[in-house]
Design goal:
The radius of gyration is 20 Å and the shape is globular. With about 150 residues, the protein is an alpha+beta fold. The protein starts with a helix and ends in an 8-residue tail after the last strand. The protein folds into 2 domains: about 30 residues; about 100 residues, Rieske Iron-sulfur Protein. Helix content is about 15%, strand content about 35%.
């Protein structure tokens, strides 16, 4: 093969490789980290207007005027744990890996993430103790009335 043909082969390879990489970056959302059931503490420790990471788990607990809710902290862009590498506050969440931003309900406000954060079921016992069920994904509008 001549060097002109070799150059063309490399160029074609780079075009094909670039297209494959672009396709991989635009694929579906990264699923949330597996967290199982997570004890959060008493509902009295989650006042209205709060959103906070839960210990070392990849979940957060929030409470708004409609009730208590929980979300994954696994960024849907590349799977980074926002609780370990980012910020979680009632004003929203920011992934420290690539800069994706989400509002306090997990909806994307700034990419590169294109999918919202998953919400999980939250249960409360008779004493007011909360448990996040990370095995049960629920609607982003679902709230536990307390």
């Amino acid at each position: 093969m001549s060097s002109a043909t070799d150059g063309l082969s490399r160029r074609r390879f780079l075009v094909v490789a670039g297209a494959a990489a672009a396709g991989a970056c635009s694929s579906g959302a990264v699923p949330p980290a597996s967290v199982g059931k997570v004890a959060v503490g008493n509902v009295s420790g989650v006042p209205v207007g709060t959103l906070q990471a839960v210990g070392g788990e990849a979940v957060c607990i929030g409470r708004d005027a409609s009730g208590v809710y929980a979300m994954t902290l696994t960024c849907t862009h590349a799977g980074c744990d926002i609780g370990q590498n980012g910020t979680v506050s009632p004003q929203g969440l920011v992934c420290g890996c690539h800069g994706s931003e989400f509002d306090a309900n997990g909806d994307v406000t700034h990419g590169p993430a294109s999918q919202p954060l998953d919400h999980f079921a939250v249960d409360v016992d008779g004493q007011g103790n909360l448990t996040i069920d990370g095995t049960t994904v629920v609607s982003a509008s679902q709230r536990l009335k307390v």
